[in-house]
Design brief:
Residues 6-242 form the SET domain. There is one protein chain. By secondary structure, this protein is mainly α. Helix content is 48%, strand content 11%. The protein has helices at 56-64, 87-91, 96-113, 121-133, 153-156, 196-202, 205-217, 249-260, 267-270, 276-280, 296-323, 326-339, 364-387, 392-420, 427-445, 475-481, 493-516, 533-536, 539-542, 548-566, 572-596, 602-610; strands at 2-7, 23-28, 79-80, 83-84, 135-138, 145-151, 159-160, 166-171, 188-193, 223-228, 239-240, 284-286, 341-347, 352-359. Strand 13 and strand 14 form a beta hairpin. The longest helix is centred in the middle third of the chain and has 29 residues, at 392-420. The protein is globular. The two termini are 43 Å apart.
Length: 619
């Protein structure tokens, strides 16, 4: 049976497609069990708080089996509650760990239910259904991952695309939450093609179970709302993403097959040649002229090189998360970004080659590195201030760390936005990174470290950057007055984006050199917004690499120059950085409003950050 959801009417960009939909089942992640009713968001006929189940997937699957099951010795059908279980595929998976996990989990569920027989087919089916259809639930106020939930066909029949036209958000249940009977009707409808054999085996039991379960849980749990991120024509299929869209095709396909047992044939995955975004996410620079002329060996060697770089990045990041040494993390990641694979011997059946290979600034590993570096430099800054905030030298070093953190965060936003302009389904990622960059820049602009650099006689030495408004852009003023920029105003989306970017680009030229001073890798990047310079430049391929000792000396020299220059500044950089931060966070808020709508926490949170409000404001 092939199923999909299609638009039942014309839908514009940035509109809700469904009313809030309640889940079939849901469960907290293990880390959130303390202080909550073990695994229940709400009361069930038999509370699971005492059951010895060790994962959210098992507890969510057990909730499904609280509904009366048909009294039959027949095995469960391929679909339960209208949803595909994938039991046959998962239990025969080439990955034996998957089948073993399902089998052991089903036995644990059976023991919890008092089922002492060896027949755990229904438990396996329920667990497979959860594994196939569950989505992670985020707190709609903080974005924190809380647990998992499974929704009925109104959501679960929405298929995946790597270039989707919709996304979704959550609205958590609250006491006395209203029923949503008066909400606008669903604007999508199922489209199904039945296979006759499957239709017969589906039987009436599935309908019975579904009705019983929905009647018992329809007013509990985290609700989900689907929203358009592109215009959708009447009759067009509605799609969402099941995976991270900033991964290259191979990684997306591998994850989709591992989790859901299907191969994606969407427009982006089927493009030949690959789309610009997918090429950029895997692009590398090589100083070996013969490397790209190796024909059939090229892809093999490139895959091997990428795997080595991936392993290095994963090792550094894992070490950072486990050991908590941000300084070592920064040094190692920047060394990989700057030098890549230098003189690494790679070998295929036909050729051996010593490879000099570096990552493109838009490579997916580079984007991951920027995220980690922004975090690590921020932590280094906080640690330095906590150590001794009264010493000027400590404040100076902490300011440098904060400045570099903001630069990496801003680079991540610019790089993602560059890709977003070629693949509009990346809007949610772009919104998130712009908002984070804006917050980092605003934090930098409010740093007490500025007093060490601004001349005492300068009028900027004591003034607050909040007193200086941008005179070139109307979009920020509109956002701060009304963060819910309405699509009903028929304002062209691209015009608004271009106006934001024009102002951001203009300010970037004034402060990018200041932000990246002292950081060898960042100084190799001419522009974090417009990456067209990469097409005409081979600087990243041929920049001579130095030893760690030489690199440290060069970094120290650059930092000393930067400090002397900053000591003569009049504080205008601070004002520009504040204005840049406001524009970044407002632009991120506008994009987030498209994705999540005026009822999400995003616009109000962003407005509060800009206005530096400490207390929580509820929209």
């Amino acid at each position: 049976m092939e199923m999909e959801m299609r638009a039942s009417e014309e839908i514009r960009q940035g509109e809700d497609i469904t009313p809030p939909l309640f889940p079939l089942t849901f469960a907290f992640h293990d880390s959130l069990l303390d202080g909550h009713c073990s695994s229940c968001f709400s009361p069930l006929p038999s509370c699971c708080s005492s059951l010895p189940l060790s994962s959210a997937e098992l507890r969510a699957a057990l909730h499904l089996l609280h509904s009366p099951l048909p009294t039959t010795s027949l095995p469960p059908p391929p679909r339960l509650f209208g949803l595909l279980t994938n039991r046959d595929k998962l239990m025969s998976s080439s990955d034996s760990d998957v089948a073993s996990k399902i089998r052991e989990g089903a036995r644990e569920m059976a023991r919890a239910r008092g089922n002492l027989s060896d027949d755990v087919a229904w438990e396996e089916a329920a667990l497979c259904l959860v594994m196939t259809n569950a989505v992670e639930v985020q707190d709609d106020k903080t974005g924190r991952i809380l647990g998992i939930a499974v929704y009925d066909k109104d959501f679960s029949w929405i298929n995946h695309s790597c270039s989707p036209n919709a996304c979704y958000r959550f609205s958590l249940s609250e006491p006395n939450a209203p029923s949503f009977r008066d909400e606008k009707k669903k604007r999508i409808a199922p489209h199904v093609v039945f296979d006759s054999t499957e239709a017969e085996t589906q039987g009436k039991s599935d309908v019975c179970i579904s009705c019983e379960l929905k009647e018992g849980s329809k007013r509990h749990g985290p609700r989900i709302i689907v929203r358009s991120i592109k215009p959708i024509n009447k009759g067009e299929e509605v799609t969402v993403a099941y995976t991270d869209l900033l991964q290259p095709k191979g990684m997306r396909q591998s994850e989709l097959w591992s989790k859901y047992q299907f191969v994606c044939h969407c427009r982006r995955c089927s493009a030949s040649p690959p789309s610009y975004v997918d090429m950029a996410l895997e692009e590398t620079f090589s100083s070996n002229p013969e490397f790209s002329s190796l024909s059939s060996d090229y892809n093999f060697l490139k895959d091997e090189a990428n795997q080595k770089l991936t392993d290095w990045m994963d090792e550094v990041t894992s070490e950072y998360l486990l050991v908590g040494d941000p300084e070592s993390c920064c040094q190692k990641l920047e060394n990989i970004l700057t030098q890549g694979l230098q003189g690494e011997l790679l070998e295929s059946e036909k050729v051996k080659i010593q490879l000099n290979l570096r990552l493109h600034p838009l490579h997916h590993l580079s984007l991951n590195a920027y995220t980690t570096l922004a975090s690590a430099y921020k932590i280094r800054s906080i640690d330095l201030l906590a150590l001794n905030s009264d010493i000027d030298g400590q404040q100076l070093d902490a300011f440098d760390m904060s400045r570099t953190s903001a630069a990496y965060s801003f680079l991540l936003a610019g790089a993602t936005d560059h890709l977003f302009r070629s693949e509009s389904s990346l809007i949610a990622a772009s919104a998130n990174f712009w908002a984070s960059a804006g917050e980092s820049l605003l934090t930098l602009s409010r740093s007490p470290g500025w007093k060490l650099f601004v001349k005492p006689e300068s009028p900027m030495s004591t003034s607050s950057p909040e007193n200086h408004e941008c005179s070139n852009c109307s979009q920020v003023d509109r956002f701060l007055v009304n963060p819910f920029l309405s699509q009903s105003q028929n304002v062209d989306f691209q015009i608004i984006c271009n106006e934001f970017l024009a102002c951001i680009t203009n300010m970037t030229r004034k402060v990018w050199g200041f932000l990246i001073s002292g950081c060898g890798y960042l100084q190799m990047l001419k522009d974090p917004i417009d990456f067209s310079w990469l097409r005409q430049s081979s600087n990243l391929c041929h920049t001579p690499c130095c030893s760690d000792e030489e690199s440290n000396k060069e970094t120290e020299y650059q930092e000393n120059i930067c400090r002397r220059v900053m000591q003569r500044c009049d504080g205008k950089e601070r004002i520009t950085i504040f204005q840049l931060g406001v524009h970044c966070i407002a632009y991120g808020g506008y994009l987030a409003n498209i994705c999540y709508g005026p009822n999400s926490h995003w616009p109000c949170k962003i407005k509060n950050v800009v206005q530096n409000e400490e207390k929580s404001v509820h929209c």
